[in-house]
Design brief:
By secondary structure, this protein is mainly alpha-helical. It has 14 helices and no strands.
């Protein structure tokens, strides 16, 4: 059984490296870029490499966040996008971007980026805490998911109001961000994105035992000697940080956080969440790497929004996996 799992991991690694090669080979070389910068070296190092690293980080962080939420809520449909966590992050980023030019946040690059990241993480944390509070009052997971969807709609309505009254320049910047993109991240952005993502993902190593216990419910976790409240708080913080940092740099990306943990459970039937954390990181990265390739396939003059591809791939995959594994 272990050797069979090792073969699966080897296959995922091969797909991962193939995705990296394809992502580095395609995109970021449209007509505008070539006319402005004739050097292929510039295109590779300043556009394609950051784009590929961003795809890896975004896929890994969103998938890990989705896994944490599905375990904590014990619901296969829990995820950053469905529960409104991404919407909370988007709303806070909307407030930052649409008011930032007026206040002068973006006069300094790193200050502006840091405020966007902080606002995105704050929005994620607030919605996650609200969902957890409501989960104590609502016993039905279906109703809780509907509440999450309603929170997402409320955040969307508030965001729409901000967009309506925004000045054209700020609105254009936010609309482009909201479409979701892996190509907008620069090497300077990665100086923030890489360390925060690695730190949040590395911390999960210390939460494998609590996650294993949480999978069997609160009472089991407490009887197993797990400090339920403390571990839940830190896991909320980690999942919100993973969602917020990716939303800040890539915009809201749908379905990755739901589909990847489901796919991981289909491939690896183990209850060891350490295995699922690693597989989610690989599968999420693979999906976004190949999605990025598809985004650049149709035309050299424009790039499709990453959200379009992840929705077309993720939504049918979630439906299929839920029907295939009715016991979830």
């Amino acid at each position: 059984m272990k050797s069979y799992s090792s073969i699966k991991f080897l296959f995922l690694l091969l797909l991962f490296f193939a995705g990296c090669l394809f992502s580095l080979a395609y995109g970021g070389s449209n007509a505008t870029t070539i006319s402005d910068f004739s050097s292929d070296n510039f295109i590779f190092w300043q556009i394609r490499v950051p784009k590929t690293i961003t795809a890896i980080l975004a896929g890994a962080t969103l998938s890990a966040a989705g896994l944490i939420l599905q375990i904590m809520f014990r619901n296969p449909l829990a995820g950053p996008y469905v529960l409104g966590i991404s919407s909370g992050a988007s709303l806070m980023v909307a407030i930052t971007i649409l008011t930032g030019n007026t206040v002068g946040f973006f006069s300094n690059y790193f200050i502006g980026k840091s405020i966007i990241v902080l606002s995105s993480v704050t929005g994620s944390v607030l919605i996650t805490l609200l969902i957890l509070f409501l989960s104590k009052k609502i016993s039905s997971n279906v109703i809780l998911l509907l509440v999450g969807l309603m929170l997402s709609q409320i955040c969307g309505a508030l965001q729409g109001a901000l967009e309506y009254f925004a000045d054209p320049d700020s609105l254009k910047s936010f609309v482009m961000w909201g479409m979701g993109s892996l190509s907008g991240t620069t090497n300077s952005d990665l100086m923030i994105f890489i360390p925060v993502s690695f730190m949040a993902l590395a911390v999960l190593v210390f939460f494998i035992k609590p996650l294993n216990a949480f999978l069997l419910g609160q009472n089991y976790a407490i009887n197993a000697g797990i400090n339920y409240s403390a571990n839940r708080f830190f896991l909320i913080l980690v999942s919100s940080l993973l969602t917020g940092i990716t939303t800040a740099f890539c915009g809201p990306i749908a379905f990755v956080g739901i589909a990847v943990p489901l796919l991981s459970r289909m491939l690896f039937t183990t209850s060891n969440q350490g295995v699922h954390i690693l597989s989610c990181i690989l599968i999420g990265s693979i999906i976004l790497l190949f999605s990025d390739v598809v985004c650049h396939t149709f035309s050299a003059d424009f790039t499709l929004p990453i959200n379009m591809i992840t929705t077309f791939v993720g939504a049918p995959l979630v439906i299929y996996l839920l029907f295939k594994n009715k016991q979830w």
